[in-house]
Amino acid sequence: MSNLKNILSLILFSIFLISYLLKLVILYKKNHINGNVLAKGKKLSKIHFTELFVKTTTFLWGATWFAFSLAESFIVTLIGEQFDNPVIHFIGVGVVALGCSIFIQAMIAMRTSWRVGIDKTTVTKLITHSIYKYSRNAAFVGFDLMFLGLYLMYPNILTLIIFILNIVAIHLLILQEEQHLKSVFGDEYIQYCNNTPRYILF
């Protein structure tokens, strides 16, 4: 069962990474857009440090996910695990799959407005259709589910810390992005905020 979980985990990791990189490549090749502006360029120090925090925590998350998929038994012998429940582990696989699906749908819906980080150099469109009718931060909801899913698949102190750090980092980035979008889109964005939750139900 553990081997199946790790195979599924690695497949989902690959789907996530390939879709993410493919989106960046398509943006650059077809539209000459640099989609990854996370902690890049001239920005206010508050935004820069928030984005650097997100960049660090998400890299740690991705590296940990990949490492556990390939070498779970070795890592568990080093740091232990909080509980061993195959049902919960496979629920975690499902949560990651759901999060990855939402993330990919969000990237598709954003089209050329997709950015990783706050882009103050170009004006994008405010996307309010498709999955963004239900959440102002659909891609981040997908991320949060994947953070949670990693912990459920591999429950230990390391993945718990990574889960908490990433939830905090993403929320801080969302708050920064909201200020940016208000300054760019004004009343249109405020009306969107009034009609659409930040996450899903709140």
Descriptive report:
Helix 3 (86-110) runs antiparallel to helix 4 and helix 5 (157-185) packs across helix 6. The model has no long low-confidence stretch (mean pLDDT 96). The chain has helices spanning 2-31, 45-79, 86-110, 138-153, 157-185, 187-195. By secondary structure, the chain is an all-alpha fold. Helices cover 71% and strands 0% of the residues.
Overall mean pLDDT score? 96
Which radius of gyration do the C-alpha atoms yield? Answer: 18 Å
The helix/strand class is: mainly alpha
Main β sheet profile: none
What share of the residues does DSSP label as strand, in percent?
Answer: under 5%
**What is the number of E strands?**
0
Q: What helical percentage do the residues reach? A: over 70%
Count the helices. How many? Answer: 6
Shape: elongated
The low-confidence runs, each spanning 5 or more residues with pLDDT under 50, are none
Q: What's the end-to-end separation, in Å?
A: 36 Å
Task: Give the helices and strands, then pairings.
Blueprint: H1 2-31, H2 45-79, H3 86-110, H4 138-153, H5 157-185, H6 187-195
Defining key terms:
mainly alpha, elongated
Summarize the structure.
This protein is mainly α and 202 residues long. The chain is built from six helices and no strands.
